[in-house]
Amino acid sequence: MRSIRAAAVGAVTLSLALAATACGGGSSTGGGSDDSPRTLTYWASNQGASVAMDKKVLQPELDKFEKQTGIKVELEVVPWSDLLNRILTATTSGQGPDVLNIGNTWSASLQATGALLPWDEQNFAKIGGRDRFAETALGSTGVPGKDPAAVPLYSMAYALYYNKKIFADAGISKPPATWDELIADGKKIKAAGASVLGAEGANLSENIHHVFVFAKQHGADFFTADGKPDFTSPKVVEAVKSYVDLMAEHEVIPAGDAEYAQNQSVSDFAKGKQAMLLWQSAAANLKSQGMSEDAYGIAPVPVISGKPGSGTQVNSAVMGINIAVFKNTDNLDGATKFVKFMTSDAEQKILNTAYSSIPPVTSAQDDPAFGTPATAVLKNTLATSAAALPQVPSESQFETTVGTAVKELFADAAAGRAVTTDSVRAKLEKAQQQMPAA
Amino acid sequence: MRNSPMAPPRSFLWTRRVFLTLLAGFVLTPVYVMVSSSLKPLADVTGRFRWLPSELTVRPYIDIWSTVPLAKYFVNSLIVAGAATVCSVVIAVFAAYAVSRYDFPGKRVFTVTVLSTQMLPGILFLLPLFLSYVNIGNLTGIALFGSRGGLILTYLTFSLPFSIWMLIGYFDSVPRDLDEAALVDGCGPLGALFRIVVPAAVPGIVAVAVYAFMTAWGEVLFASVMTNDTTRTLAVGLQGYSTLYDVYWNQIMAASLVVSVPVVAGFLLMQRYLVAGLTAGAVK
Amino acid sequence: MTTTALKEPVRETSPGAARGPRRRTGRIRRLSLPYLLLLPALLLELLVHLVPMAIGVVMSFKELTQFYIRDWGTAPWSGLDNYRVSVDFDAPVGKALLQSFGVTVGFTLLSVGLCWLIGTAAAVCMQDAFRGRGLLRALFLVPYALPVYAAVITWVFMFQHDNGLVNHVLHDQLHLTDKPSFWLIGDNSFYALLTVSVWKGWPFAFLIVTAGLQNIPRELYEAAALDGAGMWQQIRRITLPSLRPVNQVLVLVLFLWTFNDFNTPYVLFGKAAPEAADLISVHIYQSSFVTWNFGTGSAMSVLLLLFLLVVTGGYLLLTSRGRRAADA
Prior knowledge:
The complex is a heterotrimer of chains A (438), B (284) and C (328). With 438 residues, chain A is an alpha/beta fold. Chain A folds into two domains: 39-156 and 319-386, D-Maltodextrin-Binding Protein, domain 2 (3-Layer(aba) Sandwich), CATH 3.40.190; 158-317 and 390-433, D-Maltodextrin-Binding Protein, domain 2, CATH 3.40.190.10. Helices cover 47% and strands 13% of the residues of chain A. Chain A has helices spanning 2-24, 51-69, 80-93, 107-113, 121-126, 135-138, 164-169, 179-191, 204-217, 234-248, 264-270, 283-288, 332-342, 345-354, 362-365, 373-385, 395-414, 421-433, and strands spanning 39-45, 72-78, 99-103, 151-156, 158-163, 195-198, 274-280, 296-299, 316-317, 319-325, 386-387. The longest helix of chain A has 23 residues, at 2-24. Chain A is globular and about 65 Å long. Chain B has helices at residues 10-37, 42-46, 59-67, 70-101, 107-116, 122-140, 148-173, 176-184, 189-200, 202-218, 221-226, 234-237, 249-280. Chain B contains 13 helices and no strands. In chain B, helix 1 crosses helix 13 (249-280), helix 5 packs across helix 7 and helix 10 packs antiparallel against helix 13 (249-280). In chain C, 69% of the residues lie in helices and 0% in strands. In chain C, helix 4 packs across helix 8 (189-213), helix 5 packs across helix 8 (189-213) and helix 11 runs antiparallel to helix 14 (294-327). The two termini of chain C are 25 Å apart. Chain C is mainly alpha-helical and 328 residues long. Chain C has helices at residues 15-18, 27-59, 81-87, 92-125, 133-145, 148-158, 165-173, 189-213, 218-226, 231-242, 244-259, 263-269, 280-290, 294-327. Chain C has one domain: Orthogonal Bundle (MetI-like fold). The chains are: A alpha/beta (438), B mainly alpha (284), C mainly alpha (328). At the B-C interface, helix 1, helix 4, helix 5, helix 6 and helix 7 of B face helix 1, helix 2, helix 4, helix 5 and helix 6 of C.
C-alpha cells in the first residue's frame, strides 16, 4: 500500500511538471556549449548500398578522428525514409545529434527552423575558409545572402547511364543527346526486346529532381525571384507534362515504373532489363548489385536541343549532401573539428571515392581518382550545366506537394488515362495551394 | 456442442462448406505467399510471381540477421511489449477491481473518460505526447523520449482502456460472495483481489495480456517517431529491408515470418482463454 | 468505447459500501481505496492521452510552422485561422480534407460492414462442432494475430504491378483483365486498402461473435425447434436478435478502429497515399509531419475528434434507445 502511495506521489509530481512545461512549451534554446568535449553524435545519411555498408566505410575514418583528437564519435546511419523526420523531431525537441548530414536541397528549409549552426566567416575560418569549396556546391547551402546552414560534403549530379549491350543489339551507336533522340532510340530498343528508360514514379524526390531540370530546360522556374511558388505558369505546366509524357505519350518509361519508389529502376538497369537510367552517381550502387563497370556507359542527361550548358541547357540539379552542426550541441568545438576533418582533402578523397561522388572541396577534385571518364561526366555537369534547386524555406514542402502531383500524374498515365495540359495544370494548382502562405 | 437438437439441413451444410472454403482461401493466401516467398531465391521474387519456388533455400533466413540488426530490434520489441503488457495488466486489474467492487463518487466519470480515450485518433496526440516527453526529460532528467521507458508508457496506455473495460465485465461475473467470504476471513481488500478474484479471472486476464502484447508488438506510428537507433522496435526496423537499393522481398517475407511467429503462436495458444474471457466478460 | 452506458442493468451496491460499519480498517482508508486503485490508470491516461490532447488543442490555435517548431511556445497565436483553412471547402486544402473525409467514411462503412458480415457468418457456421473446427478457427484468427507491419507488407508484395500475385492470378492465369492493373497507385488503391482492412479486421468480429454465441441459452433453440423452426429460421429468430447487444459494441469498436487506422494505409502506400485511398489519419499526418504545418494538422485532428465524439454519442444514444424500446 505504501509503495502504491509513493508511486502515486511521484506520478502526480510528474504530471504537474508536465502540465507546467506544456504551457511554457519549447525546448532549450541554447546556442551550443562545450559541456561534453570528449564525445560527438553523428547522423550520417545512407549513401552506400546499405546501412551496414555505410558503417563499414565511415567507421575507420571516425576511428582516425578519434586518434587525432581524442573525441569519440557515435555513428548512426539514418535511412533516407527517416532522415527528414528525425531531423524534424530533433529540432522540435532540441535533442539531436551534434553533427548531421542533410540532403542539400533541404538546406534552406532547415535553415529556417534555426536549428542549425550558421556558417559565418568566423566558423568557416575554423575549417579552412569558405573558398575551399566549389561555388556550385555552396549554392545549395541555404537562402542566398544568408550565412550557409551547412557545408558541402559530397557533390553529385545526374547522368544518363546506358547499357552498352542493349544499345549494340538495337543498333544504336551513341547515347542520345536530346530527348527526341532518346525517344527515337527508344523505338529501336523496344524492337530489340528491352525496356527503355527507368524512373521512380512514386518517389517524390526523384520526381522533383527531374521536373526541376525539365522546367529549367523550358526556361521556367517553380518559384518567382522573390521566393513565391509559381507552379502553374504555362511553361512549368509544359515542362512537367513533357516529363510525364515520357511515359504517357512516348512510352519510353514503362508503365510499371509508376509505382516504383524504392530504387527498383536501378535494380532493373543493373539486371540488364532496361537500356537507360537517369541517376545520380550510380556507379557504386551498380557495382554492389553486380553490374560490371564495362557493361554500361555514362553520358550527360539529354537536353531539348544543342549541348548541355547553363540556362535552358541545364541538365541536372546540383545534388549532394551537406554536413551541418546542430545548434544545441554540447560539444561545439569538437563538432567544428569534426566538420573540418570530414572536409579535409584526405577524407574528401576517401569518402567521395567510396560513394562515387565528387568532392565539393576544389583541391581534392584534382586527385586522379576523380579523373576517370565516368567521373568526368559528373564533374563536367556540375561545373557547367547543373543548377541548384530553389533555395527557399518552403523547399521541402515543394518536394512533397509537387512530387506528389507528379506521382499522381504518373499513376494516371500508367492507368491509361490521358495526361493533358489541363490535368497537369489542375494537379499543379492543387500543389501550389497546399504550399504554406508566406 | 451446439444447441440445435435437429440435424442441420443439407442446404445449410453446403452453404457452410463453400463459404468456409472460400474464406479459408482468402485468409491463407497471404500466409502462403509469406511462407513460400521466404524460401525462394532472390531471382524468384524480383521476377514474375510464381506459386512454387524454383528452388528451396533457407538463405533469406540467414541473411535477415545481417542485413538489418534484426536481433537487436527483436530484443527491443520483447522488452517493450513485455513490460507494457505486464504493467498494463496489473494496472488494469487494480482499476477494474475498484470499478467492479466499489461505489464511489466519480466512478462514472472515470470509466467514461478512460474508455473514451480509445476513441482518440493517434495522430492527434503524437506530436504533443512527444513534446511532453521531451519536456519531462528536460525538467526531471528522466529520459522518456527515445527510450524504451517512454515507449512502454505509451503502449501500456494504448491497451489500458480496452483491458479495463474487459476486466470490469469479467470481475463482475466473479460471484461477489467469494470475496465477501475472504473479507470475513480477514483478508484485506487487496488480499481478496489477489487470492480470490484474480485466480477466478485468469481467462480474462490472459485475454487482456494477449491483447496488450499484440498492440505493443505491432505499433508503427509512435515507434517511428519515438525511437532511435538503439531502441528501435521490430515494426519500424523491418522497414530497413526495403530502403536498400533492391527490395529483398524474400528477406522481407522471412523477417516478417520470424517476427510474427511469437505473437501468432502465443495468440493461438491463448485463443481458448480469449474466447472464454470475452464470453464471460466483455460481451455479456 | 464509452461502454459503461451499455452495461446495464446498473450494478447493485458493492460489498465495500454495503458492509461499511463492520470493516476493521478506518473509514478514510476505505473511502480512499478505490481511488488509490484507480490512480495509476488515471495518471497514465492523463500523461499519455489527456494532457497531450489538451496540448494538441492549444497547438491548433497556433501558427506552428517550420519557423517555430524549434521553440513552439513562441509561435504566434493564429486564432481560428487553422480551422478556417481546414474547413474552407472551396480552397484546395479544405477540399482535399473533405475528399479524404469522404473516402474515409466510405471506406469505414464498407470495411466495418464486410468485417461484421463475414465474421458473423463464419461464427454462425462454426457454432456446431465438426471435424477440423478447432484448426479452422485457429487459422481464421491468424490475420488478426499477425503484426500489422508483417501482414500489410505481404499484401504490398502481392499487389505489385509487375511481380505480384494478384495480377498474376487476375491477368496471367484467369485473363480477367486485358492488362495488369495497378493496385498501389491510382483508383484501384481503394479496393486494395479495403481488401487488406477486411482481411485483417474480420477475425476480430468473428472472435467477438463466437464469444457472444456461447452466451445464448440452449433452451431458446430447443424451444424453437419444438415449434418447428428450421435452421435458417433459428438463425434469424434467435441467433441474430440475441447478438444485438454484442453487435452494438462490436460495430462501434470496429468503426473507431477502422476510422482511425493509420498503420494499414501507411505501410501499404507510404507517406503519400493515392487520392482514392487517402484515409484521414494519413492525410493529417501528411498535412502536419510531411509539410511541417503542425498547427493546421492539429486543427484537423481536433475536428476529427469532434466528429468522432458526435458520431459515438449519437450512436450510443440511438442504440440504447432502440434497445430500451426493444426490451419494453
